[in-house]
Design goal:
This protein is α/β, with parallel strands linked by helices. The protein folds into 3 domains: about 120 residues, 3-Layer(aba) Sandwich (D-Maltodextrin-Binding Protein, domain 2), CATH 3.40.190; about 80 residues, D-Maltodextrin-Binding Protein, domain 2; about 90 residues, Porphobilinogen deaminase, C-terminal domain (Double Stranded RNA Binding Domain), CATH 3.30.160.40. It contains 10 helices and 13 strands. The strands form 3 sheets. Strands 2-1-3-10-4 form a 5-stranded mixed β-sheet, with helices on both faces. A 5-stranded mixed β-sheet has the order 7-6-8-5-9. It is globular and about 60 Å long.
Length: about 300
């Protein structure tokens, strides 16, 4: 019986995502046995420090990629937003799954939208991207560092007396947390992280057998949108812990992309956008990044990198 080993983080969300991929593959390929290799990453081990202060790229993927390269796994399942724009030599991002809702979600006992939060409200988030956009909208908000898995963050909402927390809508949906009251934030109000809502399937570049097994899971429209977003991120040389946001959609055969670079205090934001056919999505994303860099983004990023390790 053929066997496939999936490398994954051990959080509830990561396991839910890996098990979903496993079930899809087992359904597509009767007789295929799929096993999980649960790996603790640097991002999972350091929970008492904001990620931006930890520094480095790939905090949630490096050890998983090491397992792939070592042959301890055949396939890695990642939250696409955690995957750095550059992959280690020998590995390829072979498939991108159909995207879930890419929006962020506001969870608050008192407000259903950001403008409804009281002056001075304490908002929990681990993301500099969210922080910058929140402060741009509401400079009076107080940002409270928030680490841990989804369950931990939901508990901290009440335990730490926070007025709100911001989480990814896709993660809440994948965990089946339908009873958690939240308000998805329109992408026109808060741009999501690059790749948010999609899963990335990473394999060794020379593994033709696994490539063939996972090919049906690649969602062409999502892949084109994510290609624009990741090219944008790559041109900015940004990681997932930098206030960079980007979101693309494919409508009527055209990829529409909007990107953003922001200062940590939200006082400076530079945005840009573009349109391209799917084949030109990556080039367009890179072009938007260049325009943003030339329009002040370069200075913003230089300041950010001076304040928080990349």
């Amino acid at each position: 019986m053929p066997k496939l080993i999936i490398a994954t983080r051990g959080s509830k969300l990561a396991l839910a995502q890996a098990r979903w991929v496993a079930s899809q593959l087992e359904g597509l390929h009767p007789g295929l046995a799929v096993e999980l290799n649960i790996i603790k990453t640097t991002g999972d081990k350091i929970l008492d420090v904001p990620l931006a202060q930890v520094g480095g790229k790939g905090l949630f993927v490096k050890e998983i990629e090491d397992a792939l390269l070592a042959g301890a796994a055949d396939l890695a399942v990642h939250s696409m937003k955690d995957v750095p724009s550059e992959l280690p030599q020998g590995l390829v991002l072979e498939a991108v799954t159909r995207r879930e809702d890419p929006r962020d979600a506001l969870i608050s006992p008192t407000a259903m939208e950001i403008k409804g939060l009281p002056t001075g409200a304490r908002v929990g988030t681990s993301s500099l991207r969210r922080q910058a956009q929140l402060l741009a909208l509401r400079p009076s908000l107080e940002m409270v560092p928030l680490r841990g898995n989804v369950d931990t963050r939901l508990k901290k909402l009440t335990e730490e007396g926070l007025d709100a927390i911001i989480l990814a809508e896709a993660g809440l949906a994948r965990l089946g947390l339908d009873t958690v009251e939240r308000a998805p934030i329109p992408t026109g109000v808060m741009l999501p992280a690059v790749g948010q809502g999609a899963l990335g399937l990473e394999i060794r570049g020379d593994d033709a057998a696994t490539r063939e097994l996972i090919a049906p899971l690649n969602h062409v429209d999502t892949a084109a949108a994510v290609a624009a977003e990741r090219a944008f991120l790559a041109r900015l040389e940004g990681g997932c812990q930098v206030p960079i946001a980007g979101h693309a959609t494919l409508e009527k055969g055209i990829v529409k992309f909007t990107g953003l670079v922001a200062g940590l205090d939200g006082k400076r934001l530079v945005t840009g956008g573009g349109l391209a056919p799917p084949a030109g999505a990556a080039a367009m994303g890179a072009q938007v990044a260049q325009e943003i860099l030339d329009d002040g983004g370069r200075e913003i990023l230089a300041q950010v990198y001076g304040e928080a390790p990349a």
